[in-house]
């Protein structure tokens, strides 16, 4: 009888530990991304911003092919995305945003930072600011 109680206690401990790990993972960490994803349209851009968890930071790189610094920033963001997998890193061509006239080559590359559907920071002409 005592042996059975010890086994029951061991099972309960394992169960509690597994429940705590599951709860910790769900509450503390949220989704993991780990890559720089390409957005195809302005609608997809808005969907990502509006439908993401309120606690997730989203960094969007607005770029265009052939603009100085855009390729380098894409490479840097790819590395950062792998290291900071809790942050959602995205990129979109200015011409695909539906507002390409607002993103002329003199303000590219541009970084926009969102959380909870709100723009919390923006960096225009990133290569001029950060070299």
Automatic annotation (TrEMBL):
One of its GO terms (cellular component) is photoreceptor outer segment. Pfam families: Phosducin (PF02114). Transmembrane segments: none annotated. GO terms for biological process: regulation of G protein-coupled receptor signaling pathway. InterPro entries: Phosducin, Phosducin-like_reg, Phosducin_thioredoxin-like_dom, Thioredoxin-like_sf. Residues 1-130 form the Phosducin domain. CDD domains: Phd_like_Phd. Belongs to the phosducin family. This is Phosducin. It comes from Cyrtopodion scabrum (Rough-tailed gecko). The gene is PDC.
């Amino acid at each position: 009888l005592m042996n059975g109680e010890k086994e029951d206690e061991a099972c309960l401990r394992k169960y509690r530990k597994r429940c705590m790990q599951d709860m910790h993972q769900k509450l503390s960490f949220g989704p993991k991304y780990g890559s720089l994803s390409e957005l195809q349209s302005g609608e997809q851009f808005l969907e990502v911003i509006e439908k993401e968890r309120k606690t997730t930071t989203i960094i969007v790189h607005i770029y265009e092919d052939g603009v100085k610094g855009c390729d380098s920033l894409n490479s840097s963001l790819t590395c950062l995305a792998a290291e900071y997998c809790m942050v959602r890193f995205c990129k979109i061509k200015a011409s695909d945003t539906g507002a390409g006239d607002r993103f002329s080559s003199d303000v590219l590359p541009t970084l926009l930072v969102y959380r909870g559907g709100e723009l919390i920071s923006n960096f225009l002409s990133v290569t001029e600011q950060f070299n």
